Amino acid sequence: xxxxxxxxxxxxxxxxxxxxxxxxxxxxxxxxxxxxxxxxxxxxxxxxxxxxxxxxxxxxxxxxxxxxxxxxxxxxxxxxxxxxxxxxxxxxxxxxxxxxxxxxxxxxxxxxxxxxxxxxxxxxxxxxxxxxxxxxxxxxxxxxxxxxxxxxxxxxxxxxxxxxxxxxxxxxxxxxxxxxxxxxxxxxxxxxxxxxxxxxxxxxxxxxxxxxxxxxxxxxxxxxxxxxxxxxxxxxxxxxxxxxxxxxxxxxxxxxxxxxxxxxxxxxxxxxxxxxxxxxxxxxxxxxxxxxxxxxxxxxxxxxxxxxxxxxxxxxxxxxxxxxxxxxxxxxxxxxxxxxxxxxxxxxxxxxxxxxxxxxxxxxxxxxxxxxxxxxxxxxxxxxxxxxxxxxxxxxxxxxxxxxxxxxxxxxxxxxxxxxxxxxxxxxxxxxxxxxxxxxxxxxxxxxxxxxxxxxxxxxxxxxxxxxxxxxxxxxxxxxxxxxxxxxxxxxxxxxxxxxxxxxxxxxxxxxxxxxxxxxxxxxxxxxxxxxxxxxxxxxxxxxxxxxxxxxxxxxxxxxxxxxxxxxxxxxxxxxxxxxxxxxxxxxxxxxxxxxxxxxxxxxxxxxxxxxxxxxxxxxxxxxxxxxxxxxxxxxxxxxxxxxxxxxxxxxxxxxxxxxxxxxxxxxxxxxxxxxxxxxxxxxxxxxxxxxxxxxxxxxxxxxxxxxxxxxxxxxxxxxxxxxxxxxxxxxxxxxxxx
Length: 739
Known about the structure:
- This protein is an alpha/beta fold.
- It folds into 3 domains: 9-269, no CATH class; 320-654, Alkaline Phosphatase, subunit A, CATH 3.40.720.10; 659-731, Immunoglobulins (Immunoglobulin-like).
- It is built from 23 helices and 19 strands.
- The strands form 4 sheets. A 9-stranded mixed β-sheet has the order 10-3-9-8-1-6-4-5-11, with helices on both faces. The protein has a 4-stranded antiparallel β-sheet with strand order 12-13-17-16, with no helix packed on it. The protein has a 4-stranded antiparallel β-sheet with strand order 15-14-18-19, with no helix packed on it.
- Strand 18 (717-722) and strand 19 form a beta hairpin.
- The longest helix has 30 residues, at 15-44.
- The termini are far apart.
- The model is unreliable at 45-50 and 307-314 (pLDDT under 50).
């Protein structure tokens, strides 16, 4: 008895099945070319006009695609012959396009195999069309998704200098708000209209696309299975041969060499928190014992040293500790082929010559301020997380971590954070609570904020609030300040401005010169802010130590393209104090996650758990392996490493150092005049829960216009500081309306 009858006819290739395969191979190639070119354009900023050859080539490929579709619809012999002849004629053009494309991407010859993997992945993503009835609909849908993502990557790369990654899902709201400022209202509306039209077309196509035979030949299924197995084997071979690369601090290089689609998928797969080799309780306990032993030895040495130098352990002798993170800060003198009318950073240069200084390896380039901030604050190495991941969202949104703030709070310090940007950008208003900060002064709590030509807050405002933090308590203070003035984008038409420092003797293009011209004058103002902070420190009666450092190199087109002879993975740092430091440390090369260890050690205070790890194990051969095990245990593991007294709780974070209060709300004609303290331009009046258009008069006065008929039933009046996405950051006391 036969249970299965083999039907040879179902496995026999036919015209339809062959057309499907040819169509699949060709459309995948076109999508591959487009996504890679657009991705490269975003990270190099060559532009469409300058790369007309590439764009014309893509246009030719699309033209061939439409002609191919026309041939497929006309199922006649002469159309097939015509299509084949046309393809032969176009072959030299396709070869020419490929050569230009390859040169454009500037990929080493051994990385061509990575691009083949990228093409195979796109081929797999489109291959379900041979199993579906609505084949054209699926092709258009998947192709649109891939191309829209590549366009998003293009704009994101231009804005912040690093590509789009899976982790950006967590900060999509922040990205959309920045898109409005970056693109402008009109361009954003145009993009929304185009996307809406595309969605409407896809829906229309779904309704109208004719249902075809689901499986035209079972041979295609066999080919698909072979393709899946072959692609996986090919991927494993690239991994084993170490042809695929991963640069944790240089996403641009990773995406360029490995291919855009593969790199984007990998950024999502890396969110699967794989357990490191040798992770178990015994290995963590052994590392902890080693760290504790070396920490005790270090303490005994420090006590002996303090007795010799007659230094008291009294808390009043502990210094204030200041971290100043400078947006996009680097030494512009290191950029090749350009000179300036004078040194843009004289104050920082003086610190480098006279104090402790060096280079700091950062976890990202061109953008990702919060990533560097996280490493410096926590001592954790982001190399063990995923591409572009911002732990403010993925980790600090739901758990607490030891930081310089929590460590110093246990030693009697008041802890403050300052940033001249929106308070809830990068989820900072929640993240800083998880790190143990007492106060957070964001731009919503600042007055007299000057703006740059690209609408970023200038750094000069920060000095006032650093001083406020230092004066807000009798205890010693930690003040962690993050600047924003040097942020991208850097206009290519900045020659319309009259800035004091000029670009001279440069062989660079006009657009590059203009970008650098704008950039050096912004960081020159940041350098003036550095000078103001030094003057403030010198004026204090309390011992104070401060470190200045860049969060990442700037997203200048020149650096994105060829590096400009600049090491984009490092930024400069310099340490200054108004008292003598008893140390032999002279600076040098460090990583961002080691900065807190250096600063706390120089200040002579107790170190936190991660700082003790770095101080005890940094000279060990297996330092990085031990660090990975500890980090996995703290972030995702069983929490064997930390003692109970080292685990912290969220702080009761206060926004701003000064209370914003309402003292009275009085009806005056058709206005409500609200008197109080410490109002800013971000103070907004809410009447009975409804937001009202608010006029800022001064820091003690707000006004709301309303008709007399609307004032009779008013019960409650409050003032809220409004942050990004119209989210209230804090709320004042409630008052009643007075006549």
